[in-house]
């Protein structure tokens, strides 16, 4: 009797606190039915009068006060009442609703009294969802409890992996893939999807990604996955860790299960391979895309053009663009012009340039640089003067400055120089050296002195040497 009074006093203390909280939050209490507290106290008092597992379950189902619920659970255990999994399942559901921080203690108590936790998916999944409600700080304990007592089942693995993602620690779920394999868990599309997502959101997860691909390849799934996102995530992981051959082989795997790779996956793979200088493999993927009539997007195509090391390869890509003119945007045009310029094939660069109806500034820049590289200074100057100074790129401006200087067109070179300085466009020492040399050739002492007076132009050793040489030449010539 004294024990019951003490417990009731504890409940009353909790109730008083709850009432104080209620008074502080009138909008919430306004929506609570009038008879709710009466019903909760009815079940609580019934439990105190006849404490048993059944009465405890009823009290927990009808109460929403964390302190009272926890006291009911502890009291029925202290009394030594016969209990089984039903009490712990009810208490775990109560924890999920009102007291998530106590979920690990409830589960460990269940284990201590002989409840077969390792065979109960429902109880363990409820435990995991309760821990998830508590926030990130219970994730480590969730994983520890799983390692000790968790069922190696589909639903438990999925729920724990989901908890890791919610806590923004997807890498902590990767060990579950090996658990699933060792325990012959069926890899449903749902389970594959969350494991693949965890891989994509983690670092150093390529080994696990390969495990998942091996599972799919061995047909150890309930049915072949129809989810393109699974493969996109796994390929992303393989590419991030430079496992290019394995990423390419994934395309064959997808074909083998009747799920052709998407245009986006093809283009992502092509772009990464080209950027990593795996040109032969990139062209292998390109050939497959062409054979399947999969459109190569401008980003991937530009990357492949820039990285191509053979003129014949550029011609293949140029032929593709001729058949798919919509792909020829500014990025692709610039890439072609720059690439043809590197090979010294100005005719092909010009052909691409003239196929653009309204060339933008980067396209003009690329053409100017190509002309300068080929020594075609009049063409570079003419192209440079076709578009507004404000749109000019630093590389094109410096190329034009050099071109004007090498053509001994000092006034136009100075116009470009002043425009660059007004817009804070960096001027290279090489371009300035060309202008200084032009001053010497043209016996233009005034311009040379003006350049010498500009403190910004006297910092580079090569430029200082150019000034000295030009001054000496003009002195010898008597200028």
TrEMBL record:
It comes from the Eukaryota. GO terms for biological process: RNA modification. PPR repeats lie at residues 360-394. PROSITE patterns: PPR. One of its GO terms (molecular function) is RNA binding. Gene3D superfamilies: Tetratricopeptide repeat domain. InterPro entries: PPR_At4g14850-like_plant, PPR_rpt, TPR-like_helical_dom_sf. NCBIfam families: PPR. This is Pentacotripeptide-repeat region of PRORP domain-containing protein. The lineage of its organism: Eukaryota, Sar, Rhizaria, Endomyxa, Phytomyxea.
């Amino acid at each position: 009797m004294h024990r019951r009074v003490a417990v009731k006093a504890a409940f009353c203390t909790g109730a008083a606190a709850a009432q104080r909280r209620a008074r502080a939050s009138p909008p919430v209490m306004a929506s609570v039915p009038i008879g709710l507290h009466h019903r909760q106290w009815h079940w609580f008092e019934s439990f105190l009068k006849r404490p048993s597992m059944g009465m405890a379950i009823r009290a927990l189902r009808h109460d929403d006060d964390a302190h009272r619920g926890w006291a009911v659970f502890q009291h029925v255990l202290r009394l030594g009442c016969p209990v089984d999994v039903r009490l712990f399942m009810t208490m775990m559901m109560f924890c999920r609703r009102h007291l998530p921080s106590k979920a690990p203690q409830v589960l460990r108590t269940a284990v201590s009294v002989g409840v077969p936790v390792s065979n109960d998916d429902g109880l363990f999944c409820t435990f995991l969802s309760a821990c998830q409600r508590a926030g990130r700080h219970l994730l480590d304990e969730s994983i520890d409890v799983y390692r000790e007592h968790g069922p190696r089942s589909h639903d438990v693995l999925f729920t724990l992996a989901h908890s890791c993602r919610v806590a923004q620690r997807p890498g902590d779920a990767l060990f579950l893939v090996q658990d699933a394999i060792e325990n012959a868990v069926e890899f449903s599309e749902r389970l594959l999807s969350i494991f693949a997502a965890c891989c994509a959101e983690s670092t150093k997860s390529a080994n696990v990604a390969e495990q998942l691909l091996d599972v799919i390849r061995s047909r150890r799934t309930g049915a072949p996955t129809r989810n393109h996102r699974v493969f996109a995530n796994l390929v992303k992981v393989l590419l991030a860790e430079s496992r290019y051959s394995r990423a390419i082989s994934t395309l064959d795997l997808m074909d083998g299960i009747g799920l052709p790779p998407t245009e986006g996956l093809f283009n992502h793979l092509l772009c990464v391979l080209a950027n990593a200088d795996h040109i032969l493999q990139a062209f292998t993927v390109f050939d497959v895309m062409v054979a399947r009539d999969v459109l190569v997007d401008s980003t991937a195509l530009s990357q492949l053009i820039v990285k191509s090391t053979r003129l014949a390869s550029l011609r293949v890509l140029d032929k593709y663009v001729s058949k798919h003119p919509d792909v020829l945007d500014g990025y692709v045009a610039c890439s072609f012009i720059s690439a043809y310029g590197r090979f010294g094939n100005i005719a092909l660069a010009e052909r691409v340039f003239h196929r653009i109806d309204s060339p933008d500034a980067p396209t003009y820049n690329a053409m100017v640089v190509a002309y300068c590289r080929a020594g075609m200074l009049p063409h570079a100057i003419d192209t440079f003067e076709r578009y507004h100074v404000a749109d000019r790129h630093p590389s094109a401006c410096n190329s034009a400055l050099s071109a004007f200087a090498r053509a001994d067109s000092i006034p136009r070179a100075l116009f470009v120089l002043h425009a660059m300085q007004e817009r804070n466009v960096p001027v290279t020492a090489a371009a300035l050296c060309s202008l200084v040399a032009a001053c010497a050739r043209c016996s233009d002492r005034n311009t040379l002195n003006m350049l010498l007076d500009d403190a910004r132009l006297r910092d580079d050793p090569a430029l200082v040497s150019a000034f000295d040489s030009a001054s000496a030449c003009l002195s010898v010539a008597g200028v």
